[in-house]
Specification:
This protein is α+β, with helices and mostly antiparallel strands. It has five helices and six strands; from the N terminus they run ααββββααββα. It has one domain: Aspartate Aminotransferase, domain 1. Helices cover 46% and strands 23% of the residues. InterPro entries: YdhG-like.
Length: 124
């Protein structure tokens, strides 16, 4: 199995077919709008947004988009994520269904608030 390394989220997105690139770009835009102060990087080989620590990650796979809002994000939106395949801090959006951009935005906003609170507690 070939391991890919990407320099940036742009490089990551360019590695996929056009239809997937459109989805990845929209997720990126959604996260940026929900967390304008967040920085972008590649962590664990996938697109990552950071704000006072890791905020969210996302990735494309053969049949789904993986979204990683941390276990706390999953817990906060337990009802909303119930229709998706999930794990401890992960969820899968099937490519044959609409991507829930509003849910992604809400989860990112929650994670920003959570990281701000954690960060201010550390400073005290």
């Amino acid at each position: 199995m070939k391991i890919y390394t990407y320099e940036s989220i742009d490089d990551y997105i360019k590695a996929f077919p056009n239809d997937i690139q459109i989805i990845l770009k929209e997720i990126r835009k959604t996260v940026r709008e929900a967390a304008p102060e967040a920085t972008e990087s590649i962590n664990y080989g996938i697109p990552t947004f950071k704000f006072a620590g890791n905020l969210v990650h996302f990735a494309a796979y053969k049949n789904h988009i993986g979204f990683y809002p941390a276990p706390s994000g999953m817990e906060e939106f337990k009802k909303e994520v119930a229709t998706y395949k999930t794990g401890k801090g992960t969820m899968q959006f099937p490519l044959d269904k609409p991507i829930p951009y509003a849910l992604i935005s809400a989860m990112v906003q929650f994670r920003v608030k959570e990281n701000k609170e954690k960060s201010s507690k550390k400073r005290k």
